[in-house]
Amino acid sequence: MKKFLITLCCAAVSIGASAQDGKLAVNAGFLFPSTLNATVGYEHPLSYGNAVELYGEAGTHWQEKDFWKGYYWDGGIVYKHRLVRYKNGMLRFRFGPQFGAVQKRFFIGLEGGFEYSYVFRNGWEFALIQKNNVNFLHGDTFRNGLLLGMRIPF
């Protein structure tokens, strides 16, 4: 039985290693209105340049008196559909659900937008993300803006 389990584990590891590699995504940027945002995620590539990303983000709506008063955090999953493929990059449409909290009040929402990524020779990617969030169940309804980031393969 032990040999069977060890063989099964080795087969699962070799299948996972031969599949397409995922990427660690790190993004930061500004959203309207007066919002600083940072995102960390895992991107899993699919066929034809499409991908799925599981992410978590934190940010703050700064005000004149207190920078950290309007903090928020959320997480979600986005499906990235490739629209155009270039020599070293691609343009994707991103869409998916999210959930989180703003100042201890929970929300659910939707994220949509566009993403341009450029791939370097070493496999790292530069990403420019245009992001739109629509959230429900609290006062932080709309957020949209630009993020810059890197994707590191592992």
How is the topology of this model organized?
Elements: H1 2-18, E1 23-32, E2 35-45, E3 51-61, E4 70-85, E5 89-102, E6 105-119, E7 125-136, E8 142-153
Antiparallel strand pairs: 1-2, 1-8, 2-3, 3-4, 4-5, 5-6, 6-7, 7-8
Considering the chains and any ligands shown, give keywords for the structure.
154 residues; mainly beta; Porin; eight-stranded antiparallel barrel; signal
Structure description:
- This protein is mainly β and 154 residues long.
- It has one domain (22-153): Porin.
- 11% of the residues lie in helices and 66% in strands.
- It is elongated.
- It starts with a helix and ends with a strand.
- The relative contact order is 0.19.
- The tally of structural domains comes to 1
Number of helices: 1
How is the largest sheet built, in terms of strand order? Answer: 1-2-3-4-5-6-7-8
In one word, what is the shape? elongated
**Percentage of residues in strands:** over 45%
Radius of gyration (CA) equals 18 Å
Q: Structural class, judged by helices and strands? A: mainly beta
How much helix, percentage-wise, in residues?
10-25%
Signal peptide: 1-19
Keywords: Signal
Task: Give a brief outline of the structure.
The chain has a single domain, classed as Porin, CATH 2.40.160. It contains one helix and eight strands.
